[in-house]
Amino acid sequence: MSAPLKNERLLRALRREPVDRTPVWLMRQAGRYLPEYRETRRKAGSFLAMAKNPEIACEITLQPLRRFPLDAAILFSDILTIPDAMGLALYFVEGEGPKFRHPVRDAAAIAKLGVPDMETELRYVMDAVRTVRRELDGNVPLIGFSGSPWTLACYMVEGGGSKDFGRIKAMALNEPQALHALLSVNTDAVIAYLAAQRAAGAQALQVFDTWGGVLSPAMYREFSLPYLTRIARELERGDDAQRTPLILFGKGNAAHLEALADSGAEGVGVDWLVGLEEAARRTGGKVALQGNLDPAVVYGSPEAIRREVAVVLDAYAAGNGGSREGHVFNLGHGMSPDMDPEHVAVLVDAVHTHSAR
Ligand code: 1CP
User: Fold this and answer.
1) Is 155 known to be catalytic?
2) pLDDT tens digit string along 12-28?
3) Looking at residues 108-136, what average pLDDT do you find?
4) Catalytic residue among 78, 294, 314, 349, which?
5) Site described as Transition state stabilizer, positions (predicted)?
6) How many whole angstroms separate alpha carbon 2 and alpha carbon 138?
7) Whose CA is nearest to atom 9 of ligand 1?
8) Could you tell me which residues are beta bridge partners of residue 247?
9) What is the pLDDT of residue 228?
10) Is the pTM higher than 0.95?
């Protein structure tokens, strides 16, 4: 039993149906740029303590929605929950980002990995989804998410963030069968994870392929695209008007827009290095497009933000036969901790004002 949805802009846009205004949400909208987030984190102690507590995860998910009239909530969690539950043991070093105590570096370690149980090992994520759905009370839809098989593999093999992805690329070159085995188990886990979030109440789903763009086009077609396509084809998400839409976001995915439009996903998220006019033309109405304001525009003046938002909205329409249908406004990547919440308010207002039909 849950409340009927009061704001359907996101779901309608992902079905490429008409909307009164272009929907907007922002990657990493819940996070360190908000003083209330920093206050919650100070009390909770650590990122993981917050993410593993459904009440706190719910509170942080809702924080940006109290300030801005965003058209969707995204669950406060992380992509690294899956490898953590696989036994790699996630931890954070202040100022250095996520790390794993047990990275997987060879075929023997990969062979031991299995798909975690979603309602035991990842129960805290599903409980957070259920809690947020209850507290949202139908005001806006909730987006659930996962990392892509390739992006998860990057952290699992490197043992944390990386500048050159030397270890995983060496594995791709020297032991491609081992890497395919890792990508395969990751894909099974991502499908089970997204299905469980949907069952718990997520109304749209996004896959973050943050590091797909570090691959050459040929390597992307071997190590990322087939697994994204398998998720889009195999993830059960209902029929027609009731279908739970899937968005494939990728940083640096501009070379692959046609293939992503044919993947079976409902939406494709793009960064700011490709114009939305070109992206809309090349995807030809097969999918909705999400993006793609350069996040650094948030550092600009209110006037500059309004101008650049209009450029993105109008570029999409220009490539989509003059229509704004099928566009979800977002940044081309996530918010940064030093961004000004006042500027975010201007951005959200600019999207709604400029796109009003
Ligand atoms: O307070 C803190 O220090 C924690 C910082 C933080 C936050 C706020 C991390 C650690 N994760 C998150 C939340 C998060 N991560 C969300 C929440 C929902 C939202 O508001 O968008 C989401 C969707 C993610 C997804 C995520 N985690 C991605 C994919 C998206 C992206 O930004 O590219 C990646 C690559 C991660 C790994 C990760 N977790 C945290 C950090 C700082 C990082 C990036 C590390 C790196 O750059 O390699």
Assistant:
1) yes
2) 999 999 999 999 999 99
3) 98
4) 78
5) 78
6) 7
7) 78
8) 206, 267
9) 98
10) yes
Rg of the chain in Å (alpha carbons)? 19
**264 CA → ligand 1 middle, Å:** 26
Is 78 a residue of the active site? yes
318 labelled as ligand-binding? no
> In the structure, what pLDDT confidence band is assigned to residue 95 with cuts at 50, 70 and 90?
confident
Measured from the Cβ of residue 43, the count of other Cβ atoms closer than 10 Å reads 10
What's the residue count for the chain? 357
3-state secondary structure 254-297: HHHHHHHHCCCCCEEECCCCCCHHHHHHHHCCCCEEEEEECHHH
Under 8 Å between Cβ of 266 and 283: no
Tokens 């600009």: give the residue.
300
| CA 171/CA 165 separation, integer angstroms | 10
- The structure tokens listed for 173 are 């070159």
Distance, in Å, from the CA atom of 299 to the CA atom of 146, rounded to the nearest integer, reads 28
ipTM field? 0.92
